[in-house]
């Protein structure tokens, strides 16, 4: 109606200052002139979300067939403009028919029962015939039926064209896929943090408690050390768990790096001491390279390296037997222009007859370590190596994370 009223005034002025509504041809011309205005306004962003909401509410079109959000390309804007123009153009015709047809139909249906209306010609000579009082109601009912069919047909036409004109474009699908991929990456990151932190803590605490129980009578000093390690491990893990759950609760996937993550510089020695408190011998050889300090490593490399070492120690505690040898060093990369961090951890595998934890599920930790290394462009290898089990990770220290 706003578009039509505007063009009706303009057409009336151009036609010599007449009222365009007094002329059928000028009325149709005003209607035709309003459609380009409708199409132009539909190119603006809010039109598509508004149209999609209307279609979902009134046309019963499945939501997955329609695009969400404003159009991001001219092709999408053009399709949304086409549907908006079709919607308003057909809606204007149905609205005009709805205003004119019902009163006329009621009048025709009332002809046989209202005496004064029987002789009304209403501009049609055949109303004055003897059959007019009986034909008029049928004509009125036919007009109402035609109006109903037109409204239903218009609704089905709009519902049928909505998935084509308001459906997601290739750009929309790409944006949705990127959003899902980003969300999945955040979820995987948080899952790795939970697995590494909680999994290591549970394995270490279990073995520390078992060792303390066995040495309760023979070595009270060892028991006190094991209990202190249990206290320290659980306190750290509760803090990490609370921070990760806070991220999940707040629903802020845009800042995955705010998840708690100790580094080699901050907690490598503590990690090794807590592992030793479980009764496992760990021999560590550390070579930070020319810098002479793990604090000189890039923060993300130091963080991911810590988690990889933690996962290797967890596997050694759960599935290994005997001492663990750990070597961490900074060395020249393959092109000699960049450095890389190498982590090598070996330990004897547990014999099948030993009373060790039976693995019913697993592999997530090693897969998570491989994902961590891949983020930096590195790699992780794990498997039998001679008569020992070996975990080897290589993390480039130059360039950005992938």
TrEMBL record:
Residues 348-368 are annotated as: Disordered. Its EC number is 2.7.13.3. Keywords: ATP-binding, Kinase, Membrane, Nucleotide-binding, Phosphoprotein, Transferase, Transmembrane, Transmembrane helix, Two-component regulatory system. Residues 187-251 form the Signal transduction histidine kinase subgroup 3 dimerisation and phosphoacceptor domain. One of its GO terms (molecular function) is kinase activity. The chain crosses the membrane at residues 30-47, 86-114, 134-159. CDD domains: HATPase_UhpB-NarQ-NarX-like (cd16917). It catalyses: ATP + protein L-histidine = ADP + protein N-phospho-L-histidine. InterPro entries: HATPase_C_sf (IPR036890), Sensor_HK_TwoCompSys (IPR050482), Sig_transdc_His_kin_sub3_dim/P (IPR011712). It comes from the Bacteria. It is an enzyme of class 2 (transferase). This is histidine kinase. It comes from Streptomyces virginiae. The lineage of its organism: Bacteria, Bacillati, Actinomycetota, Actinomycetes, Kitasatosporales.
